[in-house]
Amino acid sequence: MSRDSGRRSLGTRSQDAAGLREAARALLTTPVITATRRPETIALVRRHVTALRTMFSTQLGYHLIAESGFARLVKLPPEPSSPARTLARRNGTPLGAPTYTLVALACAALLAPGVGEQILISQLVAQIRSDAAEQGISVPDDLPQRRRLVAALSVLIDWGVLTETDGTIGRWGDTGADEALLTICRPLLPHLLVRSIGPGATDDSILAPEAGAPRRRLRRRLAEDPVVLRRDLSPEELDVLSRERTELSRLLNDNFGLVLEVRAEGALAYDPAETLSDIEFPGAGSVKQAGLLLVGALADRAEQSQSAAPEFPWAVVEDRLGELLDQNRRVWKSEYGDAPERLRDDVVALLVSLRLIEISDSGVRLLGPAFRYRPRAVAQHSQLTLDSFDEERGRS
Q1: How many CA atoms lie within 13 A of 331 on its CB side?
Q2: What is the pLDDT of residues 270-300, one digit of tens each?
Q3: CATH fold label, 97-190
Q4: Which of 101, 102, 314, 356 is close enough to 370 for a disulfide, judged by CB 3.0 to 4.6 Å?
Q5: Residue pLDDT, tens place only, 214-272
Q6: Helix pair angle (3-29, 49-60), 10° resolution
Q7: What's the short name of a Pfam family annotated to this entry (predicted)?
Q8: What is the pTM of this model?
Q9: What DSSP string runs through 32-101?
Q10: CA 197, CA 204: separation in Å to the nearest integer?
Q11: Are the beta carbons of 300 and 374 closer than 8 angstroms?
Q12: d(C-alpha 67, C-alpha 286), whole Å
């Protein structure tokens, strides 16, 4: 082989590896991808589908379904200590239980006998209400319920299950009369559930994490969770983290472009490109600004008191948020002006999802990564890093 041929071969392998990594990152971030919404990504996934299936199966225990019109990465349920990942409206507000019910009812309605490739929203809503009535669920025709239906159908539109072909669901939600024609990606519908739910299914059986396979479980947690604390790992996983750190670091970087950092309290795999995180923090918005200021203030207070297990009663949290609300009332959302309890709930939910705090019996407890956000060390990246984990004091 000539030197030029060797260089071209090396360049091709490098391009293939980069394309494979790009496709893997896209699927990690968006496990449901359709050709209608992201044709270039589907083409990339199909180009590397064999390698992707093998890599996801062996490295994370995930199953990849790829067809001409869609790709679905079937993930496993998160570990019990992992932060909850809730669906949200387009404005970032988490969906409540009633809206989750409507998402399930909408999927069932789309699979009803006689439903073709397209459906009018009036027909879809009629089927949803009929199915709901059979189960004793009330779906009244009023504005609040229509808005919940719009939120539920928006989830399916974002996933690519539905496409607004003529008209919009938003217009229907406002009036209850405007029609919209929806196109259905029918081949994708049966693959939305991670696990089949039969008559005898229980919460424990549906949400049970994968048993054994400590290497795969650890890689999965590092790829999915913002921070993995040592206290949440099994002895086998801790052994992998200790003895096989170099190989673990290589696999995470080669496959997903993630950089492993390990400290006394735990580990994380952060993304230098800052595109894999589903929550940008620090970031814009009232809740993120309040969360950053609150966690910084609590971390600073804990540092001054030299507390080994920093815990703060609700009164301290509420007082500090009240001060922040007074100082920032003109720039934060008007909805929080007279609703400090809602601000507290939203801020706490955000910080819990980032593994910066956890809720205790009487208030909140700071976790190690929170100390990165002390006022003298404000973070510059949307993903956490453990540079300021206190290795000597070993907070957890």
Answers
A1: 10
A2: 898 888 877 778 888 888 899 999 999 998 8
A3: Arc Repressor Mutant, subunit A (1.10.10)
A4: 356
A5: 999 999 999 999 889 999 999 999 999 999 999 999 999 999 999 999 988 889 898 98
A6: 60
A7: DUF2398
A8: 0.81
A9: EEETTT-HHHHHHHHHTHHHHHHHHHHHH--EEEE-SSEEEEEPPPPPTTSPP---B-TTSPBPPHHHHH
A10: 12
A11: yes
A12: 41
CA distances, 213 to each of 76, 86, 107, 269 (Å): 13, 26, 33, 19
Measured between alpha carbons, how far is 353 from 386 in angstroms, rounded to an integer? 17
| Cβ atoms of residues 226 and 355 within 8 Å | yes
Smallest CA-to-CA distance from 26 within 61, 58, 66 is with 66
- Give the residue carrying structure tokens 């200021």: 293
Around Cβ 135, how many Cβ atoms within 10 Å? Answer: 9
pLDDT above 70: residue 94: yes
Phi, psi dihedrals of residue 239, rounded to the nearest 5°: -65, -40
Token pair belonging to 238: 């801790």
Alpha carbon distance 106, 111 (integer Å): 9
Question: What is the Cα 220 distance to its own chain's centre?
Answer: 14
Q: Where are the domains of the chain?
A: 3-74, 97-190, 214-270, 286-377
**CA-to-CA distance for 241 and 267, rounded, in angstroms?**
9
The third-level CATH classification (topology) of the domain covering 286-377 is Arc Repressor Mutant, subunit A (1.10.10)
Q: 294-328 burial string, b = 16+ CB within 10 Å, else e?
A: bbbbbbebbbeeeeeebbbeeeebeebbeebbeee
